[in-house]
Design a protein that fits this description.
Blueprint lengths: L1 E5 L12 E4 L5 E6 L7 E9 L7 E5 L7
Antiparallel strand pairs: 1-2, 1-5, 2-3, 3-4
């Protein structure tokens, strides 16, 4: 798994970016840090598919094995 921060510049000012815990292929999301806040982590019961079209991400950390 990887930790990736979204860096997309959205045309709409109300669209927030988050930091995601993603599969290595960046096709599934296991959880996210709402508004990039480390105190607001939300883990999903099941991974969800993410469409990366028109979105940009910066990989912060690779090879994440365990979630504490």
């Amino acid at each position: 798994m990887i930790l990736a921060k979204e860096i997309t510049n959205w045309a709409e000012s109300y669209q927030p970016n988050h930091t995601y815990l993603m599969s290595d292929s960046m096709s599934k999301v296991y959880g996210y840090f709402k508004w990039n806040d480390p105190k607001q982590f939300q883990m999903f019961k099941n991974p969800i598919r993410i469409d990366r079209k028109y979105r940009q991400f910066q990989v912060l950390k690779k090879n994440i094995k365990d979630i504490e």
